[in-house]
Design goal:
The complex is a heterodimer of chains A (104) and B (232). With 104 residues, chain A is mainly alpha-helical. Chain A is built from four helices and no strands. Chain B is globular. The chains are: A mainly alpha (104), B mainly alpha (232).
């Protein structure tokens, strides 16, 4: 089942890329279309980060070590840390919080 | 020292930075329950980072295939506009067009846009960045996917916290306008409200698509400003 998802999503993403080379130039060149397209990644990334931070079993909202990790990531970004450091600092904070028994 | 050499050097530098993303993607994909080969297939076949992270996130949260595919596709739709921008510059057809489509991502388009004073330089920047990232992103994925398997329990290592951190880091450079910040806030709020009420994955789709509504409403309040170029 994961393979179906992996291959189906890969094909969809590829066809979208290809579509941009095939459509006539006037079709997509509209301010409203360009604006909305720039915002779609922001909306999805924001939604994903919210759900991945607090969703627990069966959709219940839970506050656990992931929240502490995300807070550290936020600080790292404000300090202009590179991508990998942001990720590692979040993981390390969550791991430490759990090891110390502060949060589950 | 020609423009060409400078462009090739920059492409490699971007590729090297991307390898680090690739390592984290490989590790997080395996932590979310994918096999290393599936993580590798995503980097080789999908080859667009934010969609790959999103797909892994939805699968890890127990979302269904259709929701996962739709989320990845919506995130990947921006590549269509990059392709649209690159088409008159590259002027490719046949097999080269199929290959150009695969290489059309944030970084290759961004590098090409930075060299549009010369069409030759723009093409060099596009292809060299695309290939450099393809190789190093896939190499990074391999290292991360195999490495994660050796590490043990993902939660003990805090890898479940690394996933939302990755989404935050991917979103961060796109928040430069007020409409983008409003979009993010609305999406986060909707996602939190919808999560206890709807099946896994659906809240992401719903909240993510709220960006379309925000974009259209914002257009009415404050019409006619050039949209920002969104590149990391």
């Amino acid at each position: 089942m994961i393979w179906v998802t992996v291959l189906g999503a890969s094909l969809s993403c590829y066809l979208l890329k290809l579509l941009g080379y095939v459509v006539p130039q006037h079709v997509l060149e509209k301010p409203a279309v360009l604006r909305v397209t720039a915002l779609i990644p922001v909306g999805f990334l924001a939604a994903l980060l919210a759900v991945q931070t607090v969703a627990g079993d069966g959709g219940a909202l839970t506050i656990d070590a992931r929240v502490a990790g995300l807070a550290t990531a936020l600080v790292a970004l404000l300090l202009r840390a590179p991508f990998l450091l942001v990720i590692i600092s979040a993981a390390a904070t969550a791991a430490l919080t759990r090891a110390l028994g502060l949060m589950s | 020292m020609s423009d060409r050499n400078a462009i090739l050097r920059d492409s490699l530098a971007i590729g090297a930075a991307t390898a680090a993303y690739g390592v984290s993607f490989g590790a997080l994909a395996v932590a979310a329950g994918l096999e290393p080969l599936q993580a590798q297939a995503l980097s080789g076949l999908m080859f667009t980072g934010a969609s790959q992270f999103a797909l892994v996130g939805v699968i890890g949260a127990g979302g269904g295939a259709i929701v996962a595919i739709a989320t990845a596709a919506f995130l990947g739709a921006r590549n269509m506009f990059y392709a649209f921008h690159m088409a008159p510059i590259l002027k490719v057809s046949g097999l080269r067009r199929l290959l150009a489509a695969h290489m059309t991502i944030d970084e290759s388009t961004g590098m090409a846009m930075g060299h549009e004073d010369s069409i030759v330089n723009a093409r060099t920047a596009f292809w060299s960045t695309g290939f450099a990232i393809f190789l190093l992103w896939n190499g990074g994925t391999l290292v991360g996917a195999l490495g994660a398997g050796l590490l043990g329990d993902p939660a003990r290592l805090g890898l479940d916290a690394a996933i939302p951190a990755a989404f935050l880091a991917l979103m961060w450079p796109r928040l430069s306008t007020s409409v983008a910040r409003v979009t993010a806030a609305v999406a986060i709020g909707l996602a939190l409200v919808a999560t206890p009420l709807l099946p896994a994955g659906v809240p992401v789709l719903l909240a993510g698509l709220s960006s379309v509504g925000v974009g259209l409403l914002y257009q009415r309040w404050r019409p006619a400003r050039t949209p920002p170029t969104v590149l990391p």
